[in-house]
């Protein structure tokens, strides 16, 4: 089969090669891959800068969708021919993957493969953050930074489904329009306006109840000054390249909660073992999200599709920050 192989750290040492298909495991599900999700995290892994460091040689990629071709002897949930979406710790940039059954999920017939690859980490992170962790309630105000990226659009859509008023920030009119089309009530161009002042004005001085921040840096710092008392802040990424330091005095005097969420923990990719019952909880979440997608309530946006051999172009687009939504590879 063909796969993208990183022989040493960095894109210059990464290329499409013909390799031996991955070995089957007792609870594995072999998938003929039709679509692969492309993310900034993939680029960090290739460069050796991600917390989940891989020793070369390896194949990057964590999100795939396709058709089951084989199941391990102890896998009981799927059969050959099933349409599925899956999360894998590594190995996704390939024509075949073998994924643990616990991270493979049945795909509704009317949800396409290209749309599906946004669910294993992108929509799942937004769901886990807003539903499980923040407990976002109907009528609350949700502030979403980086609202036109894959994570941001997912948070906008799920926030609206939960009944929140959604304020979106982005750096161009085109990106703000995308956020509005996916459900945001208000858009703020952070390059033209001070989002802190705008959020306070839009909330009668109270601030946002929940803040979803994939940017970090100064955006996080300013967000602490426009969060409502008893608000919940979710620093779920650092696209700015700057990891903020959290001033404990502000957390104290504003009675706010800082929420950590690493979705890889729920997929079994973390160093710590999962709590009992986690796979069942995760499967229920995917069932709900994919049902929403089937009903047209979630609408993943694919900015562009590339053949797998053009993976470097796809990663360059992601790195340039020009992408609205997600980029997909097709083997």
Task: Describe the 3D structure.
The chain is of the alpha/beta class. It folds into 2 domains: about 1-120 and about 300-330, Quinone Oxidoreductase, Chain A, domain 1, CATH 3.90.180; about 120-260, Rossmann fold, CATH 3.40.50. It is about 30% helix and about 25% strand. The protein has 11 helices and 15 strands. Strands 3, 4, 5, 6, 7, 14 and 15 form a 7-stranded mixed β-sheet that branches. It has a 6-stranded parallel β-sheet with strand order 10-9-8-11-12-13, sandwiched between helices. A two-stranded antiparallel sheet has the order 1-2. Helix 3 (about 120-135) crosses helix 4 and helix 3 packs across helix 10. The longest helix has 17 residues, at about 280-295. It is globular and about 60 Å long.
Looking at the overall shape, the CATH architecture of the largest domain is: Alpha-Beta Complex
General form: globular
Give me the secondary-structure category. alpha/beta
Count of distinct strands: 15
Q: Tell me the series of helices and strands, N- to C-terminal.
A: EEEHEEEEHHEHEHEHEHEHEHHEHE
Strand content: 25-35%
Fold-level CATH name of the largest domain: Quinone Oxidoreductase, Chain A, domain 1
Total of helices: 11
CATH superfamily of the largest domain: Medium-chain alcohol dehydrogenases, catalytic domain
Helix content: 25-40%
Number of domains: 2
- What is the rounded Rg? 20 Å
Which spans of ≥5 residues are poorly predicted at pLDDT below 50?
A: none
